[in-house]
């Protein structure tokens, strides 16, 4: 488990259970990899996902929510970053 470097948002958990880097992937593979990783995790565990690009940034959080998981936080890794910069997404595994 990793310590969460985000101290600004008190709703974001202190620990990360798993990490996934999909910055080299494109849709729909971005969510396929996310879904497969979430399936290996226990309910309530936190997945940290690194992603880049407008399409994954829109699709991965939306699809995770639709599948019954909870998006806890999403923000660019660099302050002021746009959709084409790397973002960090935190998802809590649902009971699905």
Describe this structure in words.
- The chain has helices at residues 29-39, 54-66, and strands at residues 2-3, 15-16, 18-21, 46-51, 70-76, 87-92.
- The chain has 96 residues and is an alpha+beta fold.
- It has a single domain, classed as TusA-like domain (Translation Initiation Factor IF3, 2-Layer Sandwich).
- The strands form 2 sheets. It has a 4-stranded mixed sheet, with helices on one face. It has a two-stranded antiparallel ribbon with strand order 1-2.
- Helix 1 links the parallel strand 3 (18-21) and strand 4.
- Helix 1 (29-39) packs parallel to helix 2 (54-66).
- The radius of gyration is 12 Å and the shape is globular.
- Mean pLDDT is 88; it is low at 1-8.
How are the secondary structure elements laid out?
Layout: E1 2-3, E2 15-16, E3 18-21, H1 29-39, E4 46-51, H2 54-66, E5 70-76, E6 87-92
Parallel strand pairs: 3-4
Antiparallel strand pairs: 1-2, 4-6, 5-6
């Amino acid at each position: 488990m990793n310590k969460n470097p985000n101290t600004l948002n008190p709703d974001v958990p202190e620990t990360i259970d798993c990490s996934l880097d999909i910055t080299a992937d494109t849709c729909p593979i971005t969510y396929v990899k996310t879904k497969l990783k979430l399936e290996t995790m226990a309910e309530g565990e936190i997945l940290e996902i690194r992603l880049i690009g407008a399409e994954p940034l829109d699709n991965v959080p939306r699809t995770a929510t639709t599948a019954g998981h909870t998006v806890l936080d999403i923000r660019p890794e660099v302050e002021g970053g746009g959709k084409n910069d790397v973002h960090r997404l935190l998802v809590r595994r649902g009971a699905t």
